[in-house]
Amino acid sequence: MTDNLHKGHRERMRNRFLKEGGDGFADHELLELLLFYAVPRGDVNPLAHKILAEFGTLTMLLESDTVEIASRCHIKESTAMLLTLQMAFLKKIQQEKWKDKISIDSVSKASAYAIDLLSHYTYERFYIMCLDTQKRLIHTCLIAEGTLHQADVQMRKLVEAALKYKASSVILLHNHPGGSVMPSFSDVTLTTQVQKVLRAIDIDVVDHIIVADDAYYSFLEHDYLKKDDRGENI
C-alpha cells in the first residue's frame, strides 16, 4: 500500500514537471525528482530535505565533492555522483556557449560571460580573459581560488598566463559569493597593480568585472581604471 502511494506521488511529480517545467518546483522538490533516478523505490522526500539541510542550498550541494556528499548525507556514492554530475553538465553548457573565438568588444558581452562563468560558485575565484588584437577571446585562465571571501592572486601566475596565450589585452574577472558587487579597497589596489605590471609588457587591462549572483560591476563602466598621462590604461 505504501509503495503504491509513493509510486503515485512519483508519477504526479514527473507529470507535473513534464507539463510545467522546473520553475514552479521548490528546491527540495527538484532534488526529490532527481533522487527518483538513484533510489528506485520508496519515499525520498525526507532524504531530499535532509540533504538540503546538510548543505544549505542547491548550489552548495552541487559544488561539493561526490565523496563528501556521500559521507555527510549517508548515501551511496553513485547517488552522490548523480547530484554532482548536474554541475558538471552546467559547466559544460556554459563553456559551449562561448566556445567559438568570439569578440568580447563590449561590457555587455564581457559581463554576460562573467556571470555565466562565476555566478554559481560559492567561493571566490579569479580569472583573466586573454584577448587578441581584435578583442576576440583566446582563452580564460583560472588564476586563483579561495574561501568565501578571498582569493590569493599571484601576479607571477597572471603574467605567465597572459604571455602563454599571447594576449594583446586582458579582462580581469572575479566573484563576491553571496555579497555585494561593489569593489573592495583590495580589489581596486589589485587592479592598479595588475595594470602597471601588464602595461610594462604591452598588455592592456580592458576591464575588471566583479560578479555577485546575477549582478555585475564593471570598472570600465564606472571609470575605475587608472589612466596614464596619455589618457591610456596603465
Q: How would you briefly describe this protein structure?
A:
The protein has 234 residues and is of the alpha+beta class. It has helices at residues 2-20, 27-35, 45-55, 58-62, 66-73, 77-97, 107-118, 155-164, 185-199; strands at 125-131, 137-145, 169-175, 204-212, 215-218.
Write the layout of secondary structure elements.
Elements: H1 2-20, H2 27-35, H3 45-55, H4 58-62, H5 66-73, H6 77-97, H7 107-118, E1 125-131, E2 137-145, H8 155-164, E3 169-175, H9 185-199, E4 204-212, E5 215-218
Can you characterise this structure?
The protein has about 230 residues and is of the alpha+beta class. It is about 45% helix and about 15% strand. It has helices spanning about 1-20, 25-35, 45-55, 60, 65-75, 75-95, 105-120, 155-165, 185-200, and strands at about 125-130, 135-145, 170-175, 205-210, 215-220. The protein has a 5-stranded mixed β-sheet with strand order 2-1-3-4-5, with helices on both faces. The radius of gyration is 22 Å and the shape is elongated. Mean pLDDT is about 85; it is low at about 230-234.
